[in-house]
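We modelled the chain as a single entity of 388 amino acids. Its sequence is:
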Amino acid sequence: MEPFALNIRHLRAVAAVVETGSISAAARVVNLTQPAITQGIAKLERQIGLPLFERRPGGMTPTTAANLLAPRVTAAIRLMDSRHATAAQISAFLALARRGSYSGAAAETGLSEPSLHRAVGDLSLAIGHILVERRGKGVALTARGAGVARRFRLGEAELRSAMSELAQLEGREVGRITVGAMPLSRARLLPAAVAAFHALHGEVSVGIIEGSHAELIGPLRDGEIDMMVGALRSSITDEGLVQTPLFEDRPVILARAGHPLAGAAEPMTSKKMLAYPWITPAPGTPLRSQWQAMFEAAGAVAPRVPIECGSVIMIRQMLLQSDFLTLLSPDQVAVELDAGWLVKVADAPGDVSRTIGVTSRADWRPTALQRRFLDVLSEKARLITANP
């Protein structure tokens, strides 16, 4: 069930009844009549297929389902920060934000374009700000609209988690875990974790979105992905994010088979490191910082980088056709090393390492299945530490 198929005011009413213990008290909190709350709760119970309260003379006793639902609803309402928006308006607005046009949103939702125009217009009036503006044949979010869309996505993520937890209460494992995969996680850690998790929970979908830290941080903040896995930043200034380390990765100096430095018996020196051009990621990335630290440890100034590239596939192809050197984790080119196309020239001088881990929102409350995925991820990280 889609989260916004449920009536937001009815959801608020459930949370209020759980908090206050009675429909009469909840009616004052959510500004609905007692019959409206009673009818709303009954409709929600039919939609989710679970009882939410036990009706007793002394009041309403919440069931396990209500106790699971209420905190998620409270969090969603707080995140969305809009008491006057309806589920239909939010759903229409988010579809328009995703598609960038009313025709695209109509195709996604099955609603007519006039209905979408009306819903988004009513939402703008309810919020008191213009949310979208025309750009050519499409539309773009205003600055205020982008902020509203972000809050709605976070609220939607909370409600999706609620639906997943209610399904699990019925013995059904449904839902989706969306992982942002930064480059280093794709070689060994994530494939192993996803395969192991799927073997345990085959009914749960796992979506993997590849990208750099800069590309994934926005979707993470917006609730479009649950977590990012990859190299952690040495410092994090956003108080809304937390980093959880998993293991340390130690990159090595790599080159093509047959490179003049391949198979050299002598130790790596700064002179040798400066004798050949390098391919590295862009400044500001953890690996570029480690590359610079490597030269400092060798007593040399890092040279100019003629090619900046973060794609392992492109780096591999350029290495195979030149005398370039690069600094990468052996895991990222394990196939190429096993095939003999690339070779490890030397360990990186100095204490060159980077911490691989999980980045998530500080206010993220993972579901039981999401926690299980994190547990599997940690298990695979421990195996990597034990078998580097």
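As a brief sanity check on the tokenised model: DSSP finds 15 helices and 14 strands in the chain. The CA atoms of residues 50 and 65 lie 7 Å apart.
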